[in-house]
Amino acid sequence: MSLVVVGSVAFDNVETPFDKIENALGGSATYISLAASYFTAPVKLVAVVGDDFGEENIKLLEDHDIDLAGLEIVEGEKTFRWGGKYHYDLNIRDTLFTDLNVFENFDPVIPEKMKSGRFLILGNIMPSLQLKVLDQMNNLKFVVCDTMNLWIDIAKDDLLKVLKRIDLLVINDSEARLLTDEPNLIKSARMIQEIGPNYLIIKKGEHGALLFGEDKIFSAPAYPLEDIFDPTGAGDTFAGGLIGYLHRTSDVTFENLKRAVIYGSTMASFCVEKFSTKGIEDLSSIEIKSRYLEFLELSKVNDDE
Ligand code: AMP
What we know:
CATH class: Alpha Beta
CATH topology: UDP-N-acetylmuramoyl-L-alanine:D-glutamate ligase
Distance between the termini: 46 Å
Number of strands: 13
Radius of gyration: 18 Å
Mean pLDDT: 95
Bound molecules: adenosine monophosphate
């Protein structure tokens, strides 16, 4: 039973109030695959890069036992590039540029051996591409999807088609409001579930995440970090930890999704402690487990009065 990850692999320029980096490894599928690789192996990556991608980046992914048979390398073209700048309030980010490069003509082809994958995560890419991927898969058990405000603005019809074919949407609070035109998150969540997905996670940045499904709501805290260097990829890393854990346990009930949300938050907390993917390149299972247990303690209440 395998886990297929589709999304962007990128070079990012990131500016925060504390520092600045250029040409750092990024992309939705990169963060998802790295985070998921701590739970299950091999993660199967489907994406596209240019011939500028670099051996060291290939090696990093291979060292995490990520199967790159679905990583297309286009000769003579450049890898997707994205630039973002964070405000003093790190929850606010401006996109400085998006250079599609190889993405302009990307037509995702799922390698034959990956088509029977049971778990699929559609990272943040154009919804029309997410649909092309769904069309090629033939044995899906659980599909998670991420998206962003850009696609809600310019490709809503395709996005709505995607939502009808997935099990879990991971979205942030402002995107949920934009998608449904409803300011109240609980009502917005119900509206999104009516469109399609049985489960929904609304991320609220440093305020944690809400999980909806089976007529229940679970509220997870965020890890109270004092030093956040680069929030880039936190959402993708959250999704990667979540699907990695779901795949390892092969249990997609609400109770297990609750654990998966905490594992996702755990991985996201490591991600934001360093620039680019550095925070999730070299973790041990003991570190992950102990932060997971700290997370559980955060909102545990002893009720024996
Ligand atoms: P997050 O901080 O979780 O929203 O993810 C940031 C990552 O998403 C960066 O590494 C970017 O390279 C990637 N990204 C940004 N915009 C897009 C886009 N339009 N399509 C695909 N990936 C993108």
